[in-house]
Design brief:
Blueprint lengths: L6 E8 L6 H9 L17 E6 L3 E7 L9 H16 L2 E7 L6 H10 L6 E6 L6 H9 L9 E4 L8 H11 L17 H16 L9 E11 L5 E11 L2 H8 L4 H18 L2 E10 L7 H7 L2
Parallel strand pairs: 1-3, 1-4, 4-5, 5-6, 8-9
Antiparallel strand pairs: 2-3, 7-8
Length: 300
């Protein structure tokens, strides 16, 4: 579709970690297309999340948050963010008013201020703070006058999201439909499954351990059980850096791994609309976050 009335474009969502980028995109698409967690580095890859309407197609690119890189993987994630802000049609910087706007947000602003694309600023999590607090946080960003639009939203409740989308659509150029109407993401199904498992690990493990975890799918096939029902057989490897970390992931008598597997299986069954037989294996890949060959293998 090339009508001048049809708007389309790629929108990069950027910000420091845990400002709610993935929660916002899930709210916009109205389904879970990106995993979420309260821990840093939850999002590690660029994810194209597609909003289709009658007169527009907006591709939101959810990407890793800005953070201080401590290893080779961190530096690669940082390069991913920089590539996003170079390539999109519009940049949306998101800040967390509940957590407070500070130096990490200003660092993000400095990275995008020279870009020529339209730039939006979203103050997220307004449902968690008072009106007075929101106004105080807004004072902190008054000096950044390069934003074409500043809005307040709650990714959690959906407040003001429609208003933001209306303003966003108005700024996008006329263009074609890049993806089929029924697509909500171009992420491969196997990758989505591995991300679900990783999310459950993030939710159940201590604050630091998830940074050393990667999940890959080594078997994904559809078969039938004895009753002739369709069933998906999924086997995932959980990679971690140390033997001591492996023991924590497995847990006493395998309890942690069973819990993660049970939670992941239920969500994967909801995604695939059929029964799933899920097996998880924990493997030690020493210092994989610093190993170029392993990072390439894992897709970073």
């Amino acid at each position: 579709m090339n009508s001048n009335n049809f708007k389309s474009g790629f929108v990069g969502l950027v910000g420091r970690t845990n400002v709610g980028k993935s929660t916002l995109v899930n709210r916009i698409i109205n389904q879970k297309v990106a995993i979420t967690s309260g821990k840093a580095q939850t999002t590690r890859n660029k994810i194209n999340c597609i909003l289709n309407t009658k007169n527009s197609q907006i591709i939101f690119i959810d990407c890793p948050g800005f953070f201080k890189a401590k290893n080779l993987m961190g530096r690669r994630l940082y390069k991913t963010v920089l590539s996003v802000i170079d390539d999109v049609d519009l940049i949306v910087a998101i800040v967390d008013v509940a957590g407070g706007i500070g130096s990490g947000d200003f660092f993000v602003f400095d990275r995008i201020k020279s870009k020529t694309q339209p730039k939006f600023l979203l103050l997220n999590k307004i449902d968690l703070v008072s009106r007075n607090r929101i106004e105080k946080e807004k004072e902190k960003v008054k000096g950044f006058d390069f934003f074409d639009y500043t809005g307040e939203v709650s990714a959690g409740t959906g407040e003001n999201v429609d208003r933001f989308l209306k303003s966003l659509t108005e700024k996008l150029p006329a263009g074609p439909r890049y993806f089929e109407k029924n697509m909500s993401t171009d992420q491969q199904l196997e990758k989505t499954v591995s991300e679900i498992v990783r999310e459950k690990l993030f939710e159940n493990l201590s604050q630091e351990l998830p940074h050393s975890i990667n999940v890959s799918v080594n078997r994904f096939e559809e078969t039938r059980n004895r009753n002739g029902e369709r069933i998906s057989v999924v086997e995932c490897d959980i990679h971690t850096e140390k033997t001591s970390q492996k023991a924590i992931i497995i847990g006493k008598s395998g309890d942690m791994l069973k819990k993660v597997g049970s939670e992941a299986r239920r969500e994967i069954e909801g995604l695939l609309k059929r029964k799933v037989f899920l097996q998880l294996w924990v493997k030690v890949e020493k210092n994989w976050t610093k190993n170029e060959l392993l990072l390439n293998k894992f897709g970073y």
